[in-house]
Amino acid sequence: MRSRLAGWAFLLPLVAYLAVCYAYPLFTNVDLSIRGYTVRSFVHGGAPLVGFDNYVTVFSDPTFRTALVNTVLFTLISLFCQYTIGLAAALFFARGFRLSATLRALFLVPWLLPLIVSASTWAWLLNSESGLVNAVLKGVGLDPVNWLTSPDWSLVAVTIANIWIGIPFNLVVLYSGLQNIPREVYEASALDGASGWQTFWHVTFPLLRPVSAITLLLGLVYTLKVFDIIWIMTKGGPSGSSTTLATWAYELGFGNMLPRFGPSAAVGNVLILIAVVAGLLYIRTQRRQELA
Amino acid sequence: MRSWRTPVGVLLTALMLFPVYWMVNVSLTPMSDMRKPPSMFPVNPTTEGYERVLREQLPYLGTSLLVAAGTVVLTLVLAAPAAYSLAKLRPAGRPTLGFVLLVAQMIPGIIMALGFYGIYVKLGITNTVWGLVLADSTIAVPFAVLILTSFMASVPDEVLQAAKIDGAGPWRSFVSIVLPASRNGLVTAALFSFLWAWSDFLFAATLDSGGALQPLTLGIYRYIGNNNQEWNSIMATAVVASVPATVLIVVAQRFVAAGVTSGAVKD
């Protein structure tokens, strides 16, 4: 009995914290999304309940479609490239060699840098007039690309930067997954005369599937959240061409002099719904693995 | 036999880290060369970017350090006792709390920022350092509880049982046995909460953009927003902002790797 009381006493600060710093902001967000706030009523209170008006506003805004499509494209392409490149690098590093531990550690740098640092570095690399990328394109005889200022390329540009940032995470997790595959499996496969490629497709890849699933789901949750990179590189523009749900929510609430908190909160709540579905999938996958 | 993998590995790493090199290169390039075709090396190296950082960004740097240190302290104070309880005292409702913590990590920052903004405006506490610390800690606390729980769970029950027979209460066991034994977990949790608070841009931009004390991420953002776009100063600030991450890679590599894989791969 006494130890149960002690158990709760030790947990109490955390539970209070979760209520104040998670439940309360989330509740505020829902409250914002069902009221007609103006800047005045935001400060002084007294905004009228408007039900789902803000959601209707958001769903009927043409930007919603753009933001949703961009979010899906940005997320899927980022995930696919991060995973493929991360897995290739993990396979490369799995066979230890001289300097391999040091080089693997250096690969982590992009993941640890503040996002504003990575984003501004990429913004300068991709700058239309003075960026290195366009200088190289010109050098090999290709036309320069307006990476950040053309509606056709802005989403590509922010996706490239995001892939670069996500490779290290995929590498580290997949690498440790590879380390957990018993060596004997490879020996048996070699005895059977399997080629390297066959071994990968019929042995390594299937055995790595649980770790791959977790990596991709965590990546999905992280990528849905991405805001800093896009906002710093393009502000979601030009004319909404690289807007995602996350940057649109921010733009509505904080992007200009006339904040629209209600619609902003409504977009946020749509995003949270998607994130939580992805999160529940992740938790279910992990549970199933623990049982297996 | 020397492996072909070493030179290829060096090449791949160089390719991966090229943008980081480019940041350093641009930070040393004089403004007068900035509009010429880019050069692979700083041909006329200058420290004008860094001098400007020292002149203009020192207060931002101080705020960042303060916010990051405050976030570390708050995170550990909240997470360590809770992790001890979850790992060793096993109160009822443990699975529910674990579930809540996992879900909490998945909530997009923009939603938290808007919610915090609504609350802070009502209470009149925008543009305060401790308000930013409180918001930044939400990035780290769930992660810290989960990773510390797994570290503390590996403290042998027999040791705690023996302490109990010697008359040690739960608090005593926590302070003199469990905390010292999970030093590595505490270091990992502290490292990541420092790094995340240091790197935060979203909470700073929403909750702290009008005050006297602003973090370095907003300092960089200010520079980018300027129309004269002095990229050597921007990149010099970026280099300074990258120092903690670089130090971590050099001195605390194994903790970093432990942090990345925790939760994703079971042992």
UniProtKB/TrEMBL annotation, chain B:
One of its GO terms (biological process) is transmembrane transport. Residues 61-252 form the ABC transmembrane type-1 domain. Coiled coil: none annotated. Signal peptide: none annotated. The keyword Cytoplasm does not apply. It comes from the Bacteria. PANTHER family: INNER MEMBRANE ABC TRANSPORTER PERMEASE PROTEIN YCJP, MALTOSE TRANSPORT SYSTEM PERMEASE-RELATED. This is ABC transporter permease.
